[in-house]
C-alpha cells in the first residue's frame, strides 16, 4: 500500500496543557517539547494530524467558531516554531449535549470511536500501518487501534523526549 506516514495527536494533554476545556487564547499553553516533537516528526516525513474530542461545544461552553479559532491559533503558534500541523479534526458531539445539534448517543467521530482517524486516512492518503497516535487517555489509544494505527499513551513530561524514545532517535 502506498500512503503517507502520519502521526495522530490528541490536543489537550498532548500538545497543550489540559486546563479543562481550553478555548480562549489565554488557555493556550504548549506542553514542553510539543513543537520540537512535531518538527522532528515532520523531518522524518510524518504528516501531523490533530484528532480531538471537543465536547465543550456540546456542553454549551463555547461554540464551533471559537473551537475552530482556537485550533487555528494553536496551528499558527506551532508553525511559528517550525512545526507543521497538516490537518485538524475536532468532534463537538456528546451524548448529553445541551444543544440538540450536538447530541448523539455514540457519534462515530467521538473517541474511542475511530471516525476522525478514518476520515483523515481517506482525506490525506495516509497508510495506517506506517502511522501512530499519541494520546493521554485510553480512549485515544482505542480509537487508534480501531483505525489500524498503533497508539501510545503520553503521561506528561516532555513530548519530544517521549517521541525520541518511541522512534528510537
Ligand atoms: Mg487528551
UniProtKB/TrEMBL annotation:
Mg(2+) binds at residues 10, 12, 136. CDD domains: HAD_HisB-N. The keyword Iron does not apply. Gene3D superfamilies: HAD superfamily/HAD-like. One of its GO terms (molecular function) is phosphatase activity. It holds the Pfam family Hydrolase_like. This is D,D-heptose 1,7-bisphosphate phosphatase. The lineage of its organism: Bacteria, Pseudomonadati, Pseudomonadota, Alphaproteobacteria, Caulobacterales.
Amino acid at each position: 500500500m502506498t500512503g503517507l506516514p502520519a502521526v495522530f495527536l490528541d490536543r489537550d494533554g498532548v500538545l497543550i496543557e489540559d486546563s479543562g476545556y481550553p478555548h480562549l487564547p489565554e488557555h493556550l499553553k504548549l506542553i514542553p517539547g510539543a513543537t520540537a516533537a512535531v518538527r522532528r516528526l515532520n523531518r522524518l516525513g510524518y504528516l501531523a494530524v490533530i484528532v480531538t474530542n471537543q465536547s465543550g461545544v456540546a456542553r454549551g461552553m463555547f461554540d464551533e467558531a471559537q473551537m475552530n479559532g482556537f485550533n487555528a491559533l494553536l496551528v499558527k503558534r506551532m508553525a511559528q516554531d517550525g512545526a507543521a500541523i497538516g490537518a485538524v479534526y475536532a468532534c463537538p458531539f456528546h451524548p448529553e449535549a445541551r444543544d440538540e445539534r450536538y447530541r448523539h448517543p455514540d457519534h462515530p467521530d467521538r473517541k474511542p470511536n475511530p471516525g476522525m482517524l478514518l476520515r483523515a486516512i481517506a482525506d490525506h492518503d495516509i497508510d495506517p500501518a506506517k502511522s501512530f497516535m499519541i494520546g493521554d487517555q485510553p480512549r485515544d489509544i482505542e480509537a487508534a487501534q480501531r483505525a489500524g494505527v498503533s497508539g501510545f499513551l503520553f503521561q506528561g513530561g516532555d513530548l519530544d523526549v517521549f517521541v525520541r524514545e518511541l522512534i528510537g532517535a
